[in-house]
Specification:
Layout lengths: L11 H14 L4 H12 L5 H17 L4 H12 L7 H13 L9 H8 L6 E5 L5 E5 L6 H11 L8 E6 L4 E3 L6 H20 L9 E6 L11 H17 L7 H16 L9 H4 L14 H14 L5 H12 L8 E7 L8 E7 L2 E5 L6 E6 L3 E6 L3 E6 L6 E6 L3 H30 L1
Antiparallel strand pairs: 1-2, 3-4, 3-5, 6-7, 6-12, 7-8, 8-9, 10-11, 11-12
Helix pairs in contact: 2-3, 3-5, 3-6, 9-13, 10-12, 10-13
């Protein structure tokens, strides 16, 4: 609040961390924080100090409520100062925090920045796979599931099911838990990244830039054409890179048809661009198929397919691409190249695909299926920074599949999410049957 000189310069976030960090962990400290802020604002003639105090109290009321014994005093304090700009908002936040679970971590930078600008509204940029972004209002008590619903509604999606919020840092892309508070999740990820970076760089202040993405995570009930907005913003841009990396098995005819569609998406109906096809092949043909024909043969065949699609718009071409790839069993899969150490008959490097059906292991070059493991056959799984392990079949007598990978956390999270979804569906069916039989 600026009433006492400080020995060293500290950022606003460092100060709010010192004030609220311990109280988010230990409930016994919460009343003390409320008392200290209110006491320092009472009979304080320094206007600057009082303004800082209101900002702190505003943050405090959104994090956790005081105990029942202090609640009436806090409410009376706020009600007796209704002329103050933030008093009514603090009171409202206090009532809200009484009804909800307390926050687990101190305020995020965005919350501190907002209230320092005397703004009680907090906005955050959300990025989408089609290289667009939008600003969304996010409150102190906004949970991930609320934000998913808000985004889905604003984008006019047919359903929010299967979508998730992801945070991308310099070295990881992490999916956020639906039930967590948005700002708690951000703090947890950026704090963890800061700690890891500080250890790596040998101490000192660390800045961790991050981006928040909204993407499809679980690919079930995805039928191209059913939700045009979801196809345009998510399904097409999320599926295209997998196709170009050569993860799918497809016929030459399908590849030529898709190459012509992708060319149309790039240039629309501009036939003057046909001469550019040889230079654009990496953006039109799967990486492992580029040498299947010469550049001129590719060009000739793609032009022929392009002419057959005459009159098609860019959006229709995107929809046509999805209608082809959705027929393949690998549509909607998440792919991971890992080093396996448990199956002597498999190559050292295998490609694992996680889909709504379960987990499939492929030969990375021939794309032959080496093994299929439906979710109900996977007894357990675990991951660390360098591995992913799972047990197939019986937990005691089952076979173990061991992998070396830095993306184990992603595989773990995806399998957990699919299994959780199926268990939720199972419980819903059982509940309906129970009601029907009563």
């Amino acid at each position: 609040m600026g009433d006492y000189p400080t020995k060293q310069m500290q950022s606003r976030l460092e100060l709010t961390d010192q004030i609220f960090g311990p109280a988010t962990k230990y409930e016994e400290l919460r009343d003390e924080i409320y008392c200290q802020i209110m006491k320092q604002m009472s009979s304080n003639n320094n206007r600057f100090s009082v303004e800082q105090g209101w900002q702190l109290l505003w943050l405090c009321c959104g994090l956790f409520p005081p105990s029942q014994s202090l609640l009436k005093h806090t409410q009376r304090f706020l009600e007796s100062r209704r002329r103050e700009t933030l008093a009514a908002d603090c009171l409202q936040r206090l009532q809200s925090s009484l009804r909800m679970e307390s926050r687990k971590l101190p305020p995020h930078q965005a919350e501190v920045d907002a209230i320092q600008q005397n703004s009680t509204q907090i906005f955050h940029k959300i990025h989408f796979p089609n290289d667009t972004e939008e600003i969304f209002e996010v409150a102190t008590n906004t949970r991930i599931k609320n934000l998913i619903q808000n985004i889905s509604k604003k984008l006019d999606l047919a359903s929010a099911d299967g979508f998730s919020i992801f945070v991308k840092t310099h070295d990881k892309v992490l999916s956020l838990n639906d039930t967590d508070y948005f700002f708690d999740s951000l703090r947890q990820i950026t704090d963890w990244s800061k700690k890891a970076k500080r250890i790596k760089d040998g101490g000192g202040p660390v800045n961790v830039p991050y981006l928040v993405f909204f993407m499809r995570k679980l690919w079930f009930n995805v039928i191209p054409g059913r939700d045009a907005e979801a196809d345009r913003i998510f399904h097409f841009p999320q599926e295209l890179p997998k196709y170009l990396r050569g993860y799918h098995v497809c016929s030459k005819e399908e590849m030529l048809n898709i190459a012509a569609l992708l060319f149309r998406i790039k240039v629309s109906n501009d036939k003057n661009q046909l001469v550019m096809i040889p230079k654009m092949l990496k953006e039109l043909v799967p990486a492992d198929q580029l040498k299947a024909m010469s550049e001129n043969e590719w060009k000739k065949s793609i032009v022929s397919s392009f002419n057959k699609q005459a009159g098609m718009t860019v959006e229709e071409a995107k929809a046509a691409f999805l209608k082809v790839v959705c027929r393949w069993p690998t549509f909607g899969c998440a792919f991971f190249e890992v080093k396996q150490t448990s199956e002597p008959s498999f190559p050292d490097i295998v490609r694992i695909a996680v889909s709504k059906e379960g987990l499939t292991i492929f030969h990375p070059k021939t794309k032959d299926v080496l093994a299929n493991h439906p979710f109900n056959r996977i007894a357990n799984w675990c991951s660390g920074s360098t591995y992913f392990h799972m047990t197939i079949g019986n937990l005691v007598k089952g076979s173990k599949f061991l992998c070396e990978t830095s993306l184990g956390y992603k595989m773990d999270d995806l399998i957990t999410s699919y299994v959780t979804m199926y268990l939720r569906e199972q419980r819903a069916v059982q509940t309906r049957n129970h009601r029907f039989n009563m």
